[in-house]
Amino acid sequence: MHMRKQLFFVPFILILCSCAGLLISRNARNEFEQGLTLFNQGRYEQAVPRFQKATEIEPKYTEAYIYLGRSYLNLGKWVEAIAPLRTAYRLSPEDTKKEVVNFLLDALIGGALSEFKKDNYATSISYLKEALGADPQSDTAKNELVTSLIALGGQLVSEGRPAEAVSSFTEAIEIAPKNLDAYLGLAIAFLKAGDYASAMHVVNDAVKKIATSDAERVPFWDLIRGN
Fold first, then answer.
1. Can you list the domains of the chain with their CATH numbers?
2. Dihedral, CA atoms, 116, 121, 125, 131, nearest 10 degrees?
């Protein structure tokens, strides 16, 4: 996954509060400015408590939530970044939401990949669906969602839950109609459930829908037998 490089300064962010008509207290502003100084020095770990304090003093302090989330992103703490960036997105005026959503997408996709590595596929799927809700055109989120759905399906089959796996593989196919792994997983799930007719239907459907490359002409029934 290509993560956007986190910049040290984004000018549009500095006008969010005034655009929202917020009056920020001196104490909250002081905490934020100290955090911003640390952030711009690359001292993200030290910046985090300053931004947190600013949001505690002013619960609608959009800038502080954004920079808190960005600090976590720069630390590679994707899951921790999600909550403040969700709040920033919710608080942002409509004309700046698009900019904030880029940071939120980084957090959600990064969090999904982190959970995937821990075999927490259901959590990964949840983050990726939220990412697509924020940006339905995100190819990265779509591709990672398909991968997570297939992985969840495989996990369910291995746990002896093929009926539940069918739903996961089916959803993957709906998103990526030419994904061989999704069809293979679905056919295997039906076989494990004893539904041979449906398994054969999946095989036939795959042959019709999967396009022309040599890699996609693998003998499908042979693959199933191998499992």
1. 11-121 (1.25.40.10), 138-227 (1.25.40.10)
2. -20
